[in-house]
Amino acid sequence: MTMDAYNLTLILLVTLVTFAMRAVGAVVMARVELGPVSSAAFEAMPVAVLTAFIAPAVLSQGLPEAIAGTAAVLVGLRAPMAVVIVVAMAVVVAMRHVG
Amino acid sequence: MWGRHVGARTQDFSAGAIAILPVLVATAPIALLFGTLAAAKGLSALEVWLMSATVFAGALQFVAIDQWADPAPLGLLVFTALVVNVRHVLMGASIGRSMTDFSGPAKYAAMFLLTDEGWAFAERRARNGKLTAAYYFGIGVSMWLVWTSASLLGAAIGRGLGDPSAYGFNFAFSAVFICILVGFWSNWRTGAVLASSGAVSALVYLLVPGAWYIIAGAFAGVGTAAALHAKSDDQTPDGIMPS
Fold it and tell me: How many whole angstroms separate alpha carbon A94 and alpha carbon A6?
């Protein structure tokens, strides 16, 4: 087990930047009071961020991912998450073999 | 202070850990692959573990290892960390508002453990009731344990199980996020936010290199929500007022 001084510095530097990003939003926004419009904006934030996060992974990768994504939505309306994961994985692998 | 008795805390902690279990199953092979790739780039097992333990950000770690050389480019890696993780500012700003139950130090610890998956589960919990610190740490600590031990294992054995994407493991995360999104649906406004955010994100992803599509899509969705609210209630938009 070795630890290079340069690698250690680099890892800690990236850790610092990553932590700053994670902390700044929560700490600053907790002190901010919101009006009605910005409250509505904040309420939409989970959906907006989550959608923006996954849209390319589902829509821009090709047909297998798009079809598996659609399957996940349909199965997700009824079934528990574990089932949705297995179905989506199966569909994406099967479609990749077909396509 | 958590201000609740130990039984309820333990129960919430377990509830968080159990909720995230499907994600843990999908995370383990990905972490194993990370350890393998990092070891192949010349990092020692201890360095791989340290990176997973302190950076604790899957997407960034893969990008960083991809750019890793001897010596690793410091400026580039720090800039990459900024760009790849800027989405956490938005996620933190959103979930931070539901952390009323968290003490000061607990909040910082919680933000250290922030992951995309953990964040989505915490948002879902906050929407369906109350997000306690115990529940959050049930998610965060179990994610941390799986991520660190599996990446250490990957680095130590030096060979993964092959490419997890061949088995669709990378798409498992998309399925998790889709599930959580489906649960967030309330009315046509949700649809409007979803459509604008998704369309802008997918478009920016194709046009602009880097991780900017997340920020662009998020602002499109949030902007749509604000515009719809302003239109329906005709109230004076008073913006963000510092208290």
Answer: 44
